[in-house]
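HOLO CASE FILE
Compound: magnesium ion
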Amino acid sequence: MLNPKRVAWLFIFLVIQVVSMLAIPTISAEIIDNGVATGDIDYIIKYGLIMIAIAFFGFASAISAVYLSSTESQAVGAKLREQLFDQILNFTNEEIDQFGTSTLMTRTTSDVLQIQQVLVMALRFLIMDPLRILVAATLAFTREPKLAFVFLIIVPILLFFIVIILRKVNPLFRSIQIKTDRLNRIFREGLTGIRVIRAFNREEYEEERFDEANEDYAQTSIAAHIYMSFLDPLMILLTSATSIMIIWFGAQYISVGEMAVGNLVAFTSYSFNILMGIMMLSMIITMIPRMQVAIERVYQILDAQNQIVDTDRPATLDAYGKEVSLAFNHVDFRYPGAEKLALKDIDFSLKDGEKIAIIGGTGAGKSTLANLILRLYDIESGSIKINGLDIKHVTQHDLREMIGFATQNALLFSGTIRENLKYGNEEATDEELWHALEVAQGADFVSNLSDGLDSRVEQGGANFSGGQRQRLSIARALATDAKILVFDDSFSALDFRTDAQLRKALEPETEDKAVIIIAQRISTVVDADQILVLDKGELAGKGTHEELKASNEVYQEIIESQMKGEDI
Ligand SMILES: Nc1ncnc2c1ncn2[C@@H]1O[C@H](COP(=O)(O)OP(=O)(O)OP(=O)(O)O)[C@@H](O)[C@H]1O
Ligand SMILES: [Mg+2]
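Model generated. Tokens follow.
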């Protein structure tokens, strides 16, 4: 995922940075010994200028390295987010149910961010620090082997403290990640559920729940950072101790003429680089497991096998042919992981010009049946055929192009009414959209809006009433010009009159289409060619209104319950 060319450049810049970082003390040592000690001004100026040039190169390389490592890690983050979004869009309902939307969100946002943050550090310090330690140690040992024993004392002490601190801190950081998940979930629920929370007067409860999670998160972060804050003073302490030791022993060597003064200066600087390098390197190394957790969480999504796949050699489905037929043949279906069948032995068929209605109590399996037509889930046994072709043998794209679907919760997207109506058919003209609205009984209220088709739709269609949303979603399905139309409880929020008008307007539109109307109200289904009565996932009856009214118990019960309602 990284760009090898840019990483190669990054490597080069880092090498230059390390070389310049360590060349400067080395040259200083030379200047002190050969220039200052002998009073050779020319020498001082010459090497002083070289030092400035090297410092400049080091500075420029450091900036380039920071630039490259940040842009690279940003690019990786952007790429990951894009892949995640593509993958999630292709998820079947089953996979979305499995993960849950909350964690899909946190993984796409904060886990990717985590990877990005560690990567930006790792790209620089994982390359730079080993190099820095190696070069500094080599220089230190070759220039003054007599002082090298200082490291044998200081480095183990440094490592000892680093290990202790990081062992405390790492589990804390890992739990911070889990606590972020929790905080996000509560926050999200609070946002989306704000109306319910108000209606039930649960603000205080939700606030407490949030405060508790927030406090927990804050305490863990504080604890982690308290431990981390020991690192700085520890470094100061140890580098000072090292300097003192070097000066102490160095002065003795110098006084007996066994060591040059310049080396003392250079050696102090090398030792600082070694200690600093060790500290940064250990920090990065311990950050990697945190990144690994995030990578795992992200790749669980990316590697998830899509359960519903197209066959290798799909049959072609003529979306715009003259005729159309849909058949369920003894279909059994069970939600993933569920014990009971959600639909059992469903058997019916319809063709163009026909209208089938599905009626049944809540939870009977009506929406489930509608989802199966779109192949949002795969069935357990039996078959579903369109134009005689098993829907498993055609591509999902072709299949869904055949179907105009108005979902139960009439979801709209933020944008304009026009954008929403054109969602299933980008080529639809304004005229066609108005016609669809006309049929859906929505033309009146849309033309009364000051901006007509250009009126804004808020997220989820929040600025429209339930009935208006339903009519827009019906119009959206009609605008597709699909051969099979499925209305999942789409008339429920309409008053009886609008419901009747809509069905009447639909008649001439659907002469060459197959129509499935799902409803709870008897009045919505009376004029259907065939009515399916669903009861607890099973087909309790099939026939016209008259037939069912005369002989079907479940249907009679439904009629009765609604008659009572009318009496009131
Ligand atoms: N994603 C899901 N995972 C597991 N079970 C589900 C899922 N969706 C629905 N069910 C179950 O399947 C059954 C049928 O649900 P379905 O949504 O099809 O009912 P429905 O007839 O459309 O009801 P309503 O009239 O209330 O819309 C219910 O018992 C429900 O609990
Ligand atoms: Mg439903």
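CASE NOTES: The two ends are 67 Å apart (CA to CA). Residues 97, 335, 338, 342, 360, 362-368, 408, 489 surround adenosine-5'-triphosphate (ligand 1) (CB under 6 Å).
CLOSED: yes
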